[in-house]
C-alpha cells in the first residue's frame, strides 16, 4: 500500500512545536493529565456503572426507569471513551505507562477492543487524516459517503436523512462484527507487528474480553432481573444508540466538514509534495464551541480537535491554553484554522456536506 510522505518540518511546524514546549516549560506543566483527568475516572464510571448495579441488585424495578438508566449508561459510556480511554490509548493520561495501560482497558469494559482502536485511530487516522483508502474514519459502510473520493451511489442522495441512524449503531457495531473484521484486516495489512502482538494472541484476547462483556451486560441482567429478553434488548440497544450518537456527533464535525480537505495519495503528492504533516492536520481538522467549559470537560477536549491532532501525546486538559498559541501561529503563517462557534452549527455544517456529497 502506498502512503503519503510528508515534509518533516516547515516554518509553521517548527515555531508551533517550540512555542508549545516553551508554554509547558515556563508554566512547569507536564504534558499528561494530572489530577484534572484523574477526577473524571470515578465520575464517568459512576455514570456508566451505577445504573447497571441499581438494576442488577433490584433497587430499580420499574421498566420505564430501567430504560432511563440504560440511556444514562450510554451517556457514561461515551464519556469514558472520550475523556478517559482516548487519552490513555494515546499515552497522555498519565506519566506512568502502567496507568495508561490500565486505563486503556476501559475500552474493553465498554465492549470494544483497544488494540483495534489504536491501529485505526492512532496509526491510520492520525497519520493520514482524510486520505482516501488510508483513513478508515472516512470509509464507512457503503450506505454512507464521507469523501468526494468515494464512489457515489444513488442511495447517497438520502444519506443526510438516514446517516444519524447509522451513527447511533457505531458502538453496537464494535460489540459484534467490526472488531473481528478489523483484526483480520490488520493482520493482512501487517499492522499488528508494530503493536508488538501476534494475531493469535490478539484474537484470543478479543474473544475472551467479548465473552466477559456479554456475560456482564447480557447474561447477568437476564438471570437476576425481572425482565424478558426483548426488554433487555431494548435497553441494550438504547444504551449503545445514545453512546454511538454522541461519539459520532463529536468526531464527524471534526473532519467531515465543508471546509476540511479530502485527498488521495496521488493528488496529494502531485499538488502538495512539500506539505508538512502539521499543515495537513490543520487543513483536514476543525474545532467547535471552544468557549464552553462544560462541553469541553465532557467530550475530553475533543472540541479542540485541531490541538489534539497536532499534539496527540499531550493530554486534553491543556488544549484550551494551547489553542491560543496554535491560532496565533497559524494566522502568522497563513495556515487555516477551522472553527465553528457552536456544536449545533458544526453538526449542521456536517449535514450540509453529507447532502452535498450525496447529490454531487
Characterise the protein shown here.
By secondary structure, the chain is mainly alpha-helical. It has one domain. The protein is about 65% helix and about 0% strand. It is built from 17 helices and two strands. A two-stranded parallel sheet has the order 1-2. α1 (about 10-25) runs antiparallel to α16 (about 320-335), α4 (about 65-90) packs antiparallel against α5 and α4 packs across α11 (about 230-255). It is globular and about 65 Å long. The two termini are about 30 Å apart.
Q: How many E strands?
A: 2
Low-confidence stretches: none
Ends: how far apart? 28 Å
Radius of gyration: 21 Å
- What coarse outline follows from CA principal-axis ratios? globular
Biggest pleated-sheet summary:
2 strands, parallel
Q: What percentage of the residues does DSSP assign to strands (E)?
A: under 5%
Report helical residue fraction. 55-70%
Estimate nothing, just give the exact number of structural domains.
1
The topology string of helices and strands comes to HHHHHHHHHHHHHEHHHEH
Number of helices: 17
How would you write the strand order of the largest sheet? 1-2
How would you classify the helix and strand content by structural class? mainly alpha
Mean pLDDT across every amino acid position: 95
